[in-house]
Write a structure and sequence with these properties.
alpha+beta, Tetrahydropterin Synthase, Chain A, five-stranded antiparallel beta sheet, two-stranded antiparallel sheet, 39% helix, elongated
């Protein structure tokens, strides 16, 4: 009888999240790693849930027209994600997002138009990645950036 009562008590305690839940904030009220990035507070940042996990800053898609001497040739859409070393760098990128997007647009627009970042009509992803990495490093600094990921490339001929 005592065993079943103890078992029922344990099950009831586990079912009540307030009793066994880990607090969302540290004892001093400061946010923990789990409070930063990837949560509801900043959907543009993900990862970093556990120690050593990568942290990603997701950029809105970049839409770039390719214009040559005869006019608009195609539209290229790029989805870029930046892998960073810590949440401070992720926050810096988020707070400087207009400058980051401007640097990417300036770096990629001309290269796509004059063919430096293309192989014929096709976008050369390796060259785009190198150019995007250099552009972001020039704005944010290379110290906090681990990698620049080109997650998707879409091309539409006009």
């Amino acid at each position: 009888m005592k065993r079943s009562a103890l078992l029922i008590g344990l099950v009831a305690m586990l079912a009540m999240p307030g009793i066994v839940a880990v607090p969302a904030h540290a004892a001093d009220g400061a946010p923990t790693k789990a409070d930063k990035g990837g949560g509801k507070k900043n959907p543009g940042i993900s990862g970093g849930k556990f120690s050593g996990d990568p942290i990603y800053v997701h950029l809105q898609p970049l839409v770039l027209p390719i214009i040559n001497a005869s006019g608009a040739e195609q539209i290229v859409t790029l989805i870029v994600t930046i892998q960073v070393k810590d949440f401070d760098t992720a926050d810096t990128i988020q707070s400087h997002m207009p400058v980051v997007r401007d640097a990417l647009m300036r770096a990629l627009y001309g290269g796509l138009g004059d063919g430096d970042l293309r192989d014929g009509y096709m976008v050369d992803v390796a060259k785009v990645k190198a150019k995007a990495t250099a552009a972001i490093d020039s704005v944010i600094g290379a110290a906090g950036i681990r990698d620049v990921l080109i997650e998707d490339v879409g091309q539409r001929m006009l």
